[in-house]
Each structure stands twice: as C-alpha cells, then as structure tokens.
C-alpha cells in the first residue's frame, strides 16, 4: 500500500525541516522545498489548511529574504530563534497529516 500524496508531501516537509535543523541544508533551500510542497498540496488538500501553511511559510521566507539581502554569511541568534519557533509551528500543523 502506498501513502497518499498529501502524506508523502507532509512527510517530505518533515524530512526537509529535520535536514535543515541538522545542518544538512540552507535556509534558502528549505524555504524553496517547503514552498514547492505547499504548492503541490494546494491542488488536493483543504484550502484553509494550505493557507495556514502558506502563512507560516511566509514568516520563514521573510527572514530568509532579509538574510539574503543583508549579505551576511550566518543568521543572527534572534533570527535563528525565530526560525526555530516558525518551524515548530509548521511541524505542529503537519501533525494530523
């Protein structure tokens, strides 16, 4: 039995978040991966839930954009803390799926 598409997508999101947390991918790569999976989910999943995911993703992308624009090589402690909080919220939204 294969997993439903939304389950595979949410599992993939969790995997990407864990990879980021372990230092295996950049914030920019994580933001791109999550955006791609959210876009795919929007074709089949509950639109309200997808909108919540997008809203949380927008917070992550905002930090990513500021960081890229700054030209810094690393995130500030405040940015890292904000990202941890955002990713916690994002993972909580994925829990039922």
Explain briefly what this protein structure is.
The chain is mostly helical. It has helices at residues 5-21, 27-41, 47-70, 77-94.
Q: Which class of secondary structure composition applies to the elements?
A: mainly alpha
Mean of all residue-level pLDDT scores = 91
Strand content: under 5%
Number of self-contained structural domains: 1
- Topology order in helix (H) and strand (E) letters: HHHH
- How is the main sheet built? none
Number of helices: 4
Radius of gyration (Å): 14 Å
Low-confidence stretches: none
Roughly what percent helix? over 70%
Number of strands: 0
Q: What is the end-to-end distance?
A: 17 Å
The general outline is: globular
Provide keyphrases for this structure.
0% strand, 76% helix, mainly alpha, 97 residues
Architecture overview:
With 97 residues, this protein is an all-alpha fold. Helix content is 76%, strand content 0%. The protein has one domain. It has helices spanning 5-21, 27-41, 47-70, 77-94. Helix 1 (5-21) runs antiparallel to helix 2. The two termini are 17 Å apart. The model has no long low-confidence stretch (mean pLDDT 91).
Topology:
Elements: H1 5-21, H2 27-41, H3 47-70, H4 77-94
Helix pairs in contact: 1-2, 2-3, 3-4
């Amino acid at each position: 039995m294969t997993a439903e598409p939304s389950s595979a997508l949410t599992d993939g999101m969790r995997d990407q978040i864990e990879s980021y947390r372990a230092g295996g991918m950049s914030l920019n790569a994580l933001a791109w991966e999550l955006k791609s999976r959210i876009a795919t989910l929007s074709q089949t999943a509950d639109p309200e839930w997808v909108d919540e995911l997008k809203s949380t993703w927008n917070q992550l992308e905002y930090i990513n954009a500021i960081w890229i624009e700054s030209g810094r090589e690393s995130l500030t402690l405040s940015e890292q803390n904000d990202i941890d909080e955002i990713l916690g919220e994002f993972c909580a939204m994925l829990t039922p799926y």
